[in-house]
Amino acid sequence: MKFFIDTANLDQIREAQELGVLDGVTTNPSLMAKEGITGRNNILKHYVDICNIVDGDVSAEVIATDFKGIVREGEELADLHEQIVVKVPMIRDGVKALKYFSDKGIRTNCTLVFSAGQALLAAKAGATYVSPFLGRLDDISTDGLNLISEIRLIYDNYEFETQILAASIRHTMHVIDCAKLGADVMTGPLSSIEGLLKHPLTDIGLEKFLADYKKGN
Ligand code: G3P
């Protein structure tokens, strides 16, 4: 399972990278705005800064919603750095653009996916990654994890190569549940990854080992 961090915050990206388990980064326009990154040039520069910190894939999202605009922006983003994956929304022109990019060998992440049907369409169009937003489904009393297992079943039935990127992960149990269900990738806040570290018995056990060592030395 690949671990991506879902943020545009360079300090958090560095921290996750230093932990040694980071495989990539996802961003979106809201996460960029949260860091105060505005204006096309600043946004493009920020993507390059992120690529220079991590070794893996960095999703950069288009703003256009028409085919020509998505293609123009996507090609500009892909040219920025070899690690860039073009993030395209699940809309009609987005599906057309996924196919266009796939034919040109440009890697994509189909975002804002909320149903198995949308995920099937993204795979048919040749998306590299599909991003089901499980937290946002949970927010409206719909089982986000169920969507992950539906997509896993469909992709396995037909051996689609599109990778399931479980997105809108909110906490550590989401990460573990997605791992059980066979998601290829998780993307979430740093806290969702760091939560995997924690167990009180580890802390108690270590404290005792160190105390016993001190007694004998
Ligand atoms: O990766 C998608 C993500 O950025 C959305 O997360 O927490 O805003 O639903 P959230």
UniProtKB/TrEMBL annotation:
Cell compartment(s), UniProt: Cytoplasm
InterPro entries: Aldolase_TIM (IPR013785), TAL/FSA (IPR001585), Transaldolase_3B (IPR022999), Transaldolase_3B/F6P_aldolase (IPR004731), Transaldolase_AS (IPR018225), TSA/FSA_arc/bac (IPR033919)
GO molecular function list: aldehyde-lyase activity; transaldolase activity
Substrates-to-products reaction catalysed: D-sedoheptulose 7-phosphate + D-glyceraldehyde 3-phosphate = D-erythrose 4-phosphate + beta-D-fructose 6-phosphate
One Gene Ontology term from the biological process aspect of the record: ketone catabolic process
Taxonomic source organism: Muriicola jejuensis
Active-site residues annotated for this sequence: K87 (schiff-base intermediate with substrate)
Entry-linked SUPFAM superfamilies: Aldolase
Entry GO terms, CC: cytoplasm
Keywords: Cytoplasm, Pentose shunt, Schiff base, Transferase
Gene that this polypeptide is encoded by: fsa
Family affiliation: Belongs to the transaldolase family. Type 3B subfamily.
Pathway info: Carbohydrate degradation; pentose phosphate pathway; D-glyceraldehyde 3-phosphate and beta-D-fructose 6-phosphate from D-ribose 5-phosphate and D-xylulose 5-phosphate (non-oxidative stage): step 2/3
Name of the protein this chain belongs to: Probable transaldolase
